[in-house]
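Support reply, case 0932

Customer input (verbatim):
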Amino acid sequence: MTMPSTAPSRRRLRLSALAAVVAAGALLAGNVTSAEAVPPEVISRWDNEIVHSNALSPGFSGFLGTGSYTITAKLYAENTGASAINYLCTIGTGPNSDGDITEVTLAPHSRHSIFLNVVHNYPSTGPLSFGCSKPAGASQVLMKQVKITAVKVNTLDNQPFG
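Our regenerated output:
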């Protein structure tokens, strides 16, 4: 009967050596002890019905604190009139900055879902705005279930395709 060897096998030694090299590389790269992620901060505003009578809607404007955010706005727009309306909604983070636009044609007496999304890094406290527009004299639009949500995130990678 043969007794099992208590000496480590060559394969185990090679794997242990490889693990030590990987750990040393991670240490040199500064990846061994990453800081704990801060839980996201969620800021949300809503209104279940806004009557949009004039060319510009009663929109929303406010400020967000320093940091990186993903921001969404959603609603459905209901045309109360008998003529089609070109309807444009925007969300923005300040002049000449990140934003999003959604343009739809609202058929007479119909509704249409609208969704906007933007990500932005505020180096200091900065503006957030949302609003919609329609031609002057067009029928009322009911903006229903309007929700605007900003989620503060730990990191942000915002790059174009390609």
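We compared this against your earlier run and they match. Two observations from our side: Confidence is low (pLDDT under 50) at residues 1-5, 9-28. The longest strand covers residues 67-79. Please reopen the case if you see a mismatch on your end.
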